[in-house]
Structure formats: C-alpha cells, structure tokens
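Possible regression after last week's pipeline update?

I re-ran a chain I had predicted before the update to compare outputs. Posting the input and the new output here so someone can diff against the archived version. Not blocking, just want to make sure nothing changed silently.
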Amino acid sequence: MIFTDAIFPAFLIIVFALHWLTPAKHKEARLTVLLVASAVFYGWWDVRFLGLIGGVIAIAWAAGLFAGDRTRDGKTRNRAVIIGVGLNLAILAVFKYFNFFADSLIAMMNVAGISANPSTLKIILPVGVSFYIFQAISYIVDVRREELATETRLRRVALYIAFFPQLVAGPIVRAAGFFPQMEKDRRLSSKLLLSGLRFFAIGWVYKAGFADNIAPFVDPVFGNPMVGGDSDVSNWTNLSLIGATFAFGAQIYFDFAGYSMMAIGVARWFGFYIPRNFDFPYLATSIADFWRRWHISLSSWLRDYLYISLGGNRAGKMRTYINLFATMLLGGLWHGAAWTFVIWGALHGAALAVHRLIMGHKKHLIGGVLGGAIGLVITQVFVIMVWAPFRAEGMSDVFEVWAAFTGLRDGAGLKSLEWIVWLAPLAVIADGILGKSGFSRLSRSEIMRQPAMFWGALGVFIGAALAVFPLQAAPFVYFQF
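New output (post-update):
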C-alpha cells in the first residue's frame, strides 16, 4: 500500500478513528492500534514480508535488552551490539546484495576465461528493508550509548521500527527521538490536523503534480540513451540527454521530498513528529551544504553511526578524507546493488573530501555574494551530472550521458526531447524561492491570520495537480531501496 493508492484514504480514516476513539488513558491500546495498522500496511505489499520485519524487530529488541543492561560488563554489552547490528546487516546483505555479488562473480569468472553461467537464486527485495534495518540499528546503538533507556516492551520496539507513515521510504527516524513521543499524552487538536494537512497536501502536489509528470519524459531517454539502438527510442540529441538529466534531478527531488512530506503529515495526524528530510538542497552552495539539505535523515545517520564510528575527523587530515570517502561509498551501496550506485557514492565521497581540503585554505577563496554564486553553480552542476549514474541502467549509459555534457558525443540529427522538459528544473527553482521566503513553513497562527493566501494558493496547487495527474501514477523512486 502507498499513499497514492485508492485504498489508502479508507485505510487512513479507519486507523485514525480507531486510534483517537481509544481513550487517552489507554496509551498502550492506542499504540497497539498503530502497530496492527502498520502490519496491515506493510503486509499489503506481500504478507511474507511480515516475517522478515518481525525477525528484524526481534533481533533489535533482544540486542537492546543486553546492550542496555547496566548490570552486565561492558564487553557483554558491546558484544550484544555487534551481534544485533551484524545480524541486521547480514539480513540486508542477503536480500539486497546477494544477486549483485553473484552476478559480479560470474562476470569476473567469464572475463578470466572460466565458464560460469549457472542460474542463480533470485531473491525478492522487500520494500523498505534498507530503511527499517537502519532504524533497528539506531535503536541498538542508542541504547548502548545510553541515549535511550532499554525498552522491555516488544510492542514499542516493533512500533518504532514498523511505524507505517515512514516505514517503506523514510525519513529514517532516530530511536532517541521517537520513543519519548510514545510516553507523551497525545491529544487531537486543530493544530495537529492543520499541520498534518499542510505537509500531506504539499507532498501530494510534489508527487502527483510534478514527479509523476516528469517521469514520462525521463524514462524513455534513460531507458536507452545509446546511439545505434532502436531509432524510435535511443537516438537522442546531446541536449535531450542533458535535459533528461536535469529533469531527473527535479523528478527525484519532488518524488522523494513529496513522500517525506506526506509521511510527516500522516505521522502528525497521530500525534508523532518526524523530522523534515529536505531543506531545499538545490540552493546549496557547496557539496557539504548539499548533504546538510538532501535526505537529511540518511546523511545525519551516516555521519553519526558510520563516519564517527570510523574515526570522523579525530585522526588527522588524511584519515578524515578517507573516512568521508568510505562513508559516502557505503552510502551509495546502501541505495542499491549496482556498480552505478557505487560510482555515485564514490564521486560524492571524493567531492566531500576535496571540499574539506579546499576549506582548509578558506582565506584564499572568493567570499560574499560572488563566492556564493560560484559555489552554487559548481555544486549544482556536479550534483546534476552525478545523477547520471544514479539513474542510468549501466556505466555505458553513464558515459554516454557525460559525453553529451562535455560535447564529446556526436548528437547531430538525432531524436529531440520535448521542450517542456525544461520546465522541470524551473519548478525546482520556484520551489526554492518560495521555500526561502518562508511560505511553506507558516505556523498555525500565521496560517490562520492569512487563511485566504495560504489555503487559496494550496488549493490552486492541488487543483493543478489534479488537472495534470497522470492516468497511471509512477511508483515512488525510493521504494526500490
């Protein structure tokens, strides 16, 4: 089940009613309603997935009991963390990377002249597995760091990991930030309803109005960008490849930011606060600034649980560069089992290391508005070009796209992409301008002081999204991760 399914409104209304009609004094009963709803929501994809997430929950709960037990010695508690995190990563590796490594091994054997073409076991990738396993790891580590008390109630650990608004595509929620919310007396209010509606409506417009209408322009180009294939789909001009790459940058932003905002909105309707996941990343003036704004829940997770664990910046400059590169390399592999994602992560890791090196000579840099403008252009050109390996089917397609950017590709006389695709990056620019103006962050009191402006504008956006809503909605991009 996804937010744009026809069944979701009925599901949401039923769960909303059951949750808020349960008396506030029965706090555990309310949590049980949400847990059962989360199981239905996830099992809607494939009931077999419930066994997998159940195993992840059980491992996290058991590891937390040992890791947080202060009566045990430090070695035992650390061993519980290693086992709990290791088992969850092993599950992630089997379901997400088994086919990738098996196919890579076969390819290397064939290159070496060793005949190998066995039929490998194809394992289905459970939706959202990367997200909820990272949340399980967050719980285990936060308990060991004593940022969170050990939770003996399995129901609460299960709800944290399986909470349906952000279950399948994030944002990744920290255990230390979620568990205290279960203790609070949550009450239904107009503030809660308005806040949830604002986030959900804007997110829905992002997804249905923008992302789903950009996808039909992007998919045919990246489906076969090479010269020399079927003339109907593959012979694209250089400008078409460049335009499709820019358009994908807009598509993935509106798609993923839209899902994140809808998830935040749905969670608000049940009294839970999920942190925002995007902060207008295409306004970033450096690659470090970009990662402070893009997929914030993942970038901060990688920083706090991986980069710092590797040593962060505590072991000298060279080790810092290596840690930055390794963190983003693994972050790229987290996104998908393909060499294109490895390259994407490696390029971002290298860019962060170079940025760190340059910032060590900050006094020699251009400052002020001019420096910011130069940084903006360099950052965004890099980000857009590196979207190519993220979206492409293989590295040969990536090189084809990059050749178009550099002018090294012969694109004369080939098929052109429709001019309207260039409206996609303009929509991102407009979104950034509105965002920086503060319009999208109006508080409840501010909204009620100017209801005509806010709700009128939002109504226009929703009406426009409905008018151009595609006959068949595209799946959320991050569901594959």
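Follow-up from reviewer: compared with the archived run. The mean pLDDT is 83. Marking as no regression found.
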